[in-house]
Amino acid sequence: MAELNPIKLWHRILALPAESQTKTIAMAFVVSAVSALFVSIAAVSLQPLINANKLAERQAKLDEMIANLPGLAEVLAQSNAETLDTVIVDLTTGLADDTLDAASFDMADIAADPATSTVLSDEQDIAGIKTRPNFAQIYVLKSGDALELVILPVYAAGYQSQINAYLALKGDLNTVAALVITEQGETPGLGAKIAEPAWQALWPGKEIADADGTVRLAVVRGGAASTFEVDGITGATRTSSAVSAMIGFWMGPQGYAKVLFALRNGEV
Question: Among 38, 92, 156, 194, which is 20 to 30 Å from 136 by CA?
Fold first, then answer.
């Protein structure tokens, strides 16, 4: 009967000559297994730090956007507010949700959990994200009862990466105050230009939807000809299309449409 005791079997392998192929294969297997174990341990132990760094980077981008929004400092001063209010909203109802902890909220985790996300059909999924989180963390600024600013996290599948961004809307909830790309991995020198301040500076003042409520804002090839168009990036058609799809999805019925309706009616 073959030896089944792993310790004795290991001793037998170690006793083999150095030139033994069996010993070489066994040692290579052990080294690779131990290395894989240490890599896995390192990955698991470092994941909280990686996540914290990502959240810190997003917050820094958000703070930078807020600081650069024209007139926001004056609005904050007039409303006696130091920061925007953080609100977790239910995208299914459009209303605020107080069951989730804002301090630990992560939209990616919400989208990845079948219990807190919705699978999108091919027709619905114009942004290429497959599942939509049922909850989102938005930022709201009011001066008295008047809505001044809303900042919405948005994302979509780009040409080479997921594109994450913040879209800030003025109090009418139809005029863009700013668009800031927080994370992207598009082609350097082409699609990656969406993260450059010069391109993001094209967004303020653009309008989301027309008088009928149809979402029309899009990135277009050539020069923008209306308040519903933003100049595309030469040589980056797929990235430009992804940004258009991102706006179309999140401003539509599967995205923030119900939230915007509730905001207009003072329900959030």
Answer: 194
Domain boundaries, the chain: 7-13+23-68, 73-264
For residue 225, count other CB atoms closer than 10 A to its CB: 8
**What is the per-residue pLDDT across 135-187, written as a single tens digit (0 to 9) for each?**
999 999 887 788 889 999 999 999 999 999 999 999 999 999 999 998 999 99
Name beta bridge partners: 184: none
* Helix count and strand count (H, E) for the chain: 7, 9
HSE on the CB side for 88, CA within 13 Å?
A: 15
What's the rounded Cα separation, in Å, for the pair 181 and 62?
10
CA–CA distance, 178 with 260 (Å, rounded to integer) = 17
Q: Which two tokens stand for residue 169?
A: 């809307």
The structure tokens listed for 53 are 């760094």
The three-state secondary structure class of 125 is coil
